[in-house]
Structures are given as structure tokens and as C-alpha cells.
Write a structure and sequence with these properties.
With 101 residues, the protein is α+β, with helices and mostly antiparallel strands. It has a single domain, classed as Thrombin, subunit H (Beta Barrel). The chain has three helices and four strands, in the order H-E-E-E-E-H-H. It has helices at residues 4-7, 67-78, 93-100, and strands at 17-20, 36-39, 42-49, 62-66. The protein has a four-stranded antiparallel beta sheet with strand order 1-4-3-2. A hairpin with a 2-residue loop joins strand 2 and strand 3. It comes from Phytophthora nicotianae P1976.
Length: 101
């Protein structure tokens, strides 16, 4: 996991996003979206975006949605609450890459 100040070079909002994996093969690649990022046996992130091409397993860090940012929502849904307005089509990796350039 990369420190927030370094991650901020690639991610729009480090309160929501964390970065990990700067060596080829250490992060996730295209098709891995939704995979967990586990630290010390705890899921801390959900694979969400790559800063390069969709299938680029580059040396740039991969971006993960912070599970801690979503805990209230997760607990609400687990306890029978509404999922609210969840979009059916989240932004693509290409769109996210454009935003951070």
C-alpha cells in the first residue's frame, strides 16, 4: 500500500481511494476490478481503476476504493437497508485515466 501523498499523484481523492502495487505483477490488471486488497488479513480495498490502459499491468500503482469509506453503506445493506441509487454503469478505466492526467 502506497502512502496517501504518493497516491495523490494518481488518484483524485485519497479519502476514497488508496493505491498499491508499483512493480509489474504486484497490483491488479484489466479484468481484476472488484478484487479485494487484503492487508494483515483484512479487506481494505476493492480493485477499481488502473492509471494506464485497461489491460496495462504497468509499474504505476493500481487504485482501490477504500472499504473504510464504504463501511456505513455496507453495514446498512447487510442489516437490510436500501442500496440507494447504485449506478448500473460505473466509470470506465479509460474515463478515470483521463481524469487523473
Amino acid at each position: 500500500i502506497i502512502p496517501d501523498d504518493e497516491c495523490g499523484k494518481y488518484a483524485i481523492d485519497t479519502d476514497v481511494t488508496l493505491c498499491a502495487g508499483t512493480e509489474r505483477g504486484k497490483g491488479f490488471c484489466g479484468g481484476d476490478n472488484g478484487a479485494p486488497l487484503i492487508s494483515n488479513g483484512v479487506v481494505v480495498g476493492i480493485a477499481s481503476a488502473l492509471p494506464g490502459e485497461v489491460n496495462d499491468c504497468s509499474e504505476l500503482p493500481a487504485m482501490y476504493t477504500r472499504v473504510s469509506h464504504l463501511l456505513d453503506y455496507i453495514n446498512d445493506v447487510v442489516n437490510g437497508g436500501s442500496t440507494g441509487n447504485v449506478t448500473d454503469s460505473p466509470p470506465t478505466n479509460e474515463h478515470i485515466a483521463e481524469l487523473i492526467q
